[in-house]
Amino acid sequence: MIRVTAMPADANAYGDIFGGWLMSQMDMGAGLVAARRSRGRAVTVAMDGMQFHLPVKVGDEVSVYGEIQRVGRTSLTIAIEAWRRHRHEEEEVKVTQAVFTFVAVNEFGKPRAIDQEK
Ligand SMILES: CCCCCCCCCCCCCCCC(=O)SCCNC(=O)CCNC(=O)[C@H](O)C(C)(C)COP(=O)(O)OP(=O)(O)OC[C@H]1O[C@@H](n2cnc3c(N)ncnc32)[C@H](O)[C@@H]1OP(=O)(O)O
Prior knowledge:
Elements: E1 2-5, H1 19-38, E2 42-52, E3 61-71, E4 75-85, E5 92-104
Antiparallel strand pairs: 1-3, 2-5, 3-4, 4-5
Bound molecules: Palmitoyl-CoA (PKZ).
């Protein structure tokens, strides 16, 4: 869903990429899934089970993948993973995972029903 290069500005003083930057990429990836499935604006209401398995380094290619787990009346639950790949190598390794809940909202920011038919 999202593929981006981790840059020096995203790193701490040790050269590891900030967890907050990764969470932001994951949130944006989940947002793409939620907006597409709900056919409109959707906002993050919860993020559960965030796990950081391995560090990401400057220059790594970071890919964010997501899968809808559940569609409720107005909310969606989306499992998100981020994977890193050293830019000179082929192997991809999972670095983070979390479950995001988004709520579809109308123009007033209030929950709106999601079409249950896909
Ligand atoms: C033209 C220009 C285009 C521009 C294009 C730009 C695109 C750029 C892309 C960016 C993509 C990034 C995407 C990031 C998205 C944010 O970062 S959004 C910012 C952060 N989030 C917020 O500000 C949301 C703040 N919260 C709220 O406004 C309200 O809590 C909400 C979300 C509207 C919910 O209101 P509420 O009155 O609590 O709703 P309520 O009726 O009680 O519950 C609604 C549903 O939520 C569920 N729910 C409520 N709370 C929870 C909870 N804590 N846990 C789980 N489920 C919950 C309920 O179970 C219910 O589910 P359903 O049974 O209906 O399925």
